[in-house]
Amino acid sequence: PSNHRFYSEWSPERIHRWAKSIGEEVDQVIENVIKSRKHPEQAFKACMGILSMGKKYGDVRLNKACRKANKFGTCSLKRIESMIKLGLEEEKQPQLELISTIPDHENIRGGQYYS
Length: 115
Prior knowledge:
Elements: H1 2-8, H2 12-22, H3 24-35, H4 44-57, H5 59-72, H6 77-85
Helix pairs in contact: 2-3, 2-4, 3-4, 3-5, 4-5, 4-6, 5-6
């Protein structure tokens, strides 16, 4: 069938070249997806799906999502796409909690009042 012919034109090396052109994080995800299958050819469809997300969402967002996927070990098409759709690919900086202090005021009793 024609869909089999399409995949026969691809090889792991060709997929890696495409992934590297997007970014190292994407290439690492592709490597993990290929290694997760018994035969590399079984991973081609998932790899093509991941790589095509670069066209839909942009290479920068895809690379960021792949960085997070590599960090958490969730290298799958569905997880990466979900991350991008929800905008979770951005690395959030932890916000410092503001410590509130009690203002000085004549109506506020101190600890001495309760001693």
